[in-house]
Amino acid sequence: MSKPRVPWKSVVGGSIGNLVEWYDWFVYSSFAVYFASSFFPKGNTTAQLLNTAGIFAVGFFMRPVGGWLLGRFADRKGRKAALTLTVTLMSASALLIAIAPTYESVGYFGAVVLLVARLLQGLSVGGEYAASATYLTEATPPGKRGLASSFQYVSMTAGQLVGLGLQIILQNTMSEEALKSYGWRIPFIVGALAAAVVFYLRRSLMETEAYDEEEREADGTAARRGTIKGLLEHKKEALLVIALTMGGTVAYYTYTTYMTKYLSNTAGLSKETATLVSFCALFLFMCLQPLAGGLSDRIGRRPLLITFGVGSMLGTVPLMTALSGVSGFGGAFALSLIGLIIITGYTSINAVVKAELFPTHIRALGVALPYAIANALFGGTAEYVALWFKDSGIESGFYWYVSGCAAVSLVVYLTMRETRDAALSRAEQAKSDSVTVRV
């Protein structure tokens, strides 16, 4: 019997759109140090960052709405249709930020435009995560799903790297005054144009066999496809997604989107050095995802999740404390990379784990809504909470907060069932039953 192969065309097709989605999402955070003063009155730098971080967090609170609406759409109209819709919304929101007026010209109206754009991005990303996770998982045969689904975070991280890379280029070709004046708009224009290209590419994707099978053989589930009623039949799995996401999303946003600000605002590194540290560490982090995803296909998902839980619970306080005192690129890079290696146990497989928990007729919504709720409560607020602790003079309290969230998720990892061998369709289940009978 030949070994199952990864359908790379589907993986690339699903991932490239995810890259643009997350480029647009994260570029807001990475360029906030330049445009914060454009939308709020001049004053305390930390206060301006708090305002922009607050709008960043508000975008996360639209993610449950997007998860519900677009998750339902993906379960009813197909994964391909949902992927196309999400990237369209993201392109529009990026363009809106690019043309947003400043505080000096229209007062707080510019901040309102920024807020509306972030709400649209939240709506889009709330559906993108589930549509991408579901598509990558369903399009791949058993035994390769961990590897294939890991490309979701490869593409997410690649989106960040493109944003950071563009930031490095602009930092070295433009003055800080020019960046604060108009240069920060450039990455949003790039994102809007790139999303338009991906819209065209995603139209050529094939629908997954699992969804096509569900369309043909609904067997009484058609009315419950993508509905809250259908999701409530899987309350345990939905709560499990929220709990296992809690620690992972806080740690992820701490070591990715917040890290550049932390190294600049707390450790005292220059913005250029902090950006370079994040770029180099994230590149290696991206390369680790397929290795860890492939490992989970061999040893299971739980061992990686448990490793992350233990490492994040015990390692966050000493790592963040050490990072606050770094004085150059080398130390900051090494410590940041250690943190990213720890969270690889979560990021490389969290998408496939969630998809493997639900049946086809409710899979996209089951992944989208609970995950979006967890991100709204913990991921989207991580940066704001960190800056609040700093502004209150007790920055170390944030380190303990991250450790506590990881501890809660660790309990879930230790008690949850293994999902690696879950059948995602009737055909897979029949094949699995046939193998069992022959054995």
TrEMBL record:
Keywords: Cell membrane, Membrane, Symport, Transmembrane, Transmembrane helix, Transport. The keyword Transmembrane helix applies. It is a multi-pass membrane protein. One of its GO terms (molecular function) is symporter activity. The keyword Coiled coil does not apply. CDD domains: MFS_KgtP (cd17367). InterPro entries: H+-coupled_symporters (IPR051084), MFS (IPR011701), MFS_dom (IPR020846), MFS_trans_sf (IPR036259), Sugar_transporter_CS (IPR005829). GO terms for cellular component: plasma membrane. Residues 10-420 form the Major facilitator superfamily (MFS) profile domain. The chain crosses the membrane at residues 21-40, 52-70, 82-100, 106-130, 151-170, 182-201, 238-255, 275-292, 304-326, 332-353, 365-386, 398-416. It is found in: Cell membrane. May be a proton symporter involved in the uptake of osmolytes such as proline and glycine betaine. Belongs to the major facilitator superfamily. Metabolite:H+ Symporter (MHS) family (TC 2.A.1.6) family. This is Putative proline/betaine transporter.
